[in-house]
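quick q for whoever's on today - can somebody do inverse folding on this one?? i tried earlier but teh output was garbage lol. tokens:
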């Protein structure tokens, strides 16, 4: 794109956003607690950061800001309403305080968005992609009255080429139609419930991640895939290109800071292997990142180029000196310990108010001495994983649950109670499609080391088949097939849940074939006056009256973990990072204002868990 035209284009868009914000009143709604970052939200440019750190190119424009919205009865009509109800701040879900709306939608209604976007007709010679980070759950996109496309899936990014739909003149209309049945449908929805209570939270409907435009050449790189191999000191890289021509190739370069380490040119359908010189391994405490450039080349001329990054990291398992399977990072036993992280916010629900807020939770988790986070039945925006990559946090990634109703057996080795969900063909196809999309979208983030398809039997079905498919789809990571129950002899991990105290399956019975982990424990509750979602009837697995009692109990749990590590435990997950709505099990309050156990004390007590002398590996 011509530099002058690009400047005009972006200036027009930015100017329009600011003008709209200046003429439209916006403020958070509701009387619930909020985080300190809520006051930092600028309706002219909420969440302005580049949303896709693993595939960067110049020429993009953020469309977050104030859009028209309407909630209408659900019909088969694709005609937008004649009038709208008001303004909504994108990308905050309509039920959230920061949306400025705070209304529920439900399966019998539709949520509509509309935005007029200034656009230079001079740019129609190039391609324009319209990107959505995530929309929950089903949406139809229209540009200037014509359908651009449809998408189902609340947790994966998607885009449409809207170039053919642009019209003469500067104003282009974008309309989004959303339907989300929440807990009345079979789709993945995590902790959302139509009537929230206990461990189930407020529904999230509509756009909840950044919306943006991107200018690309006619032939362009759509996606990349990189996988490290530390045993051979190489990184394998492939890419998908759109509208390529015969003879086009990929030119891939690996960089260590400003030094190019290696370069390969391969056919478009080939995978390049790039040597990594003097390999520095990525791990907790040393999150070393390398850079990549991937170019689409035609007759020795670069047609398109994107920047990315990678890390040299390996996750595996191996028997220790006792014959018990252990989880290894870069061929070394590292006890993995982290909080169960729901990823909810009192003001933004699924969406952090700012990027600083998004980073805060990860940074505090690391400061507390954790080296892992279990992202619980939710998927975060790409920038969350980018921050984990930068900070050296290991991530266990859950598949968001849905279509619940089968029976749960939490005890290993017990038959006759736990059942597989008899899903409809529609429900099964939705699960498979969305799980694949989530894994594909997040493959390049080195922080993710474990995939978790099922949790506590919530919608669990065809466990052996789904586990095997997950392993085949991504052999570079471990698979925790059934966290918390309904166990099958598949996958790399056997994972029990126990509240409040830490326990584990008997290593001599269960540790010879699978890694033993404690996927959830703790849940020690402490409601802090002035920092709760509601004044009374808050809930915890075990509730304490003051921080001293809580701290004493927690420290006792850490001593118990040391003994379990010696016997065969490879990882544990403490419930949880923050309070969420009526749950007061968090190490931090829901508004992130109070850390219930001092950070320094947590870091000190966690240090004993990482003592390498606790475990002797087989020579």
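ok took a stab at it. sequence:
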């Amino acid at each position: 794109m011509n530099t002058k035209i690009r400047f005009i284009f972006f200036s027009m868009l930015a100017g329009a956003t600011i003008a709209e914000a200046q003429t439209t009143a916006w403020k958070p709604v509701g009387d619930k607690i909020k985080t300190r970052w809520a006051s930092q939200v600028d309706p002219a440019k909420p969440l302005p950061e580049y949303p896709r750190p693993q595939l960067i190119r110049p020429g993009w424009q953020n469309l977050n800001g104030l859009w028209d919205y309407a909630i209408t009865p659900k019909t088969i009509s694709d005609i937008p309403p004649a009038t709208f109800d008001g303004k909504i701040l994108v990308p905050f879900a309509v039920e959230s305080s920061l949306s400025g709306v705070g209304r529920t939608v439900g399966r019998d209604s539709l949520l509509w968005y509309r935005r007029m976007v200034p656009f230079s007709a001079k740019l129609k010679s190039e391609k324009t992609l319209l990107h959505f980070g995530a929309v929950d759950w089903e949406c139809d996109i229209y540009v200037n009255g014509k359908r651009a496309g449809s998408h189902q899936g609340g947790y994966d990014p998607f885009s449409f080429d809207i170039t053919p739909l642009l019209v003469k003149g500067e104003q282009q209309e974008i309309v989004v139609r959303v339907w989300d049945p929440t807990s009345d449908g079979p789709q993945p929805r995590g902790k959302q419930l139509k009537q929230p209570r206990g461990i189930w939270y407020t529904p999230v409907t509509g756009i909840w991640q950044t919306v943006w435009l991107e200018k690309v050449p006619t032939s362009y790189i759509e996606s990349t895939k990189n996988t490290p191999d530390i045993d051979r000191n190489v990184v394998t890289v492939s890419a998908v290109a759109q509208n390529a021509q015969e003879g086009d190739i990929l030119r891939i370069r690996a960089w260590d800071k400003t030094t190019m380490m290696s370069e390969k040119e391969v056919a478009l359908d080939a995978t390049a292997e790039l040597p990594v010189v003097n390999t520095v391994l990525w791990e907790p405490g040393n999150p070393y990142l390398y850079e990549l450039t991937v170019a689409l080349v035609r007759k020795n001329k670069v047609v398109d180029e994107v920047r990315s990054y990678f890390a040299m990291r390996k996750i595996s398992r191996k028997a220790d000196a006792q014959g018990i399977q252990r989880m290894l990072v870069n061929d070394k036993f590292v006890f993995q310990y982290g909080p169960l992280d729901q990823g909810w916010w009192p003001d933004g629900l699924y969406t952090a108010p700012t990027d600083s807020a998004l980073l805060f939770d990860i940074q505090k988790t690391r400061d507390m001495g954790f080296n892992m986070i279990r992202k619980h039945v939710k998927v975060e925006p790409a920038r969350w994983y980018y921050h984990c990559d930068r900070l050296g946090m290991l991530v266990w990634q859950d598949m968001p649950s849905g279509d619940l109703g089968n029976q749960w057996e939490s005890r290993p080795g017990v038959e006759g109670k736990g059942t597989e969900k008899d899903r409809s063909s529609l429900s099964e196809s939705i699960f498979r499609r969305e799980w694949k999309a989530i894994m594909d979208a997040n493959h390049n983030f080195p922080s993710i080391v474990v995939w978790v398809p099922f949790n506590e039997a919530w919608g669990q079905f065809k466990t052996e088949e789904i586990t095997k498919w997950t392993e085949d789809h991504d052999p570079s990571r471990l698979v925790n097939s059934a966290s918390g129950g309904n166990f099958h002899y598949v996958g790399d991990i056997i994972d029990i849940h126990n509240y409040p105290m830490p326990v584990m399956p008997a290593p001599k019975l269960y540790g010879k074939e699978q890694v033993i982990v404690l996927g959830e424990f703790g849940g020690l509750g402490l409601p802090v006056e002035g920092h709760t979602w509601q004044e009374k009837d808050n809930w915890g697995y075990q509730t304490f009256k003051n921080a001293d009692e809580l701290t004493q109990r927690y420290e006792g749990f850490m001593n118990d973990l040391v003994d379990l590590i010696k016997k065969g435990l490879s990882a544990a997950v403490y419930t949880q990072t923050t309070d969420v709505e009526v749950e007061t099990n968090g190490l931090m309050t829901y508004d992130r204002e109070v850390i219930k156990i001092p950070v320094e004390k947590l870091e000190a007590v966690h240090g004993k868990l990482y003592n390498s002398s606790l475990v002797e590996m087989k020579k």
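fwiw Residues 153 and 433 are 9 Å apart (CA to CA). also The longest strand covers residues 109-118. so keep that in mind when u check it
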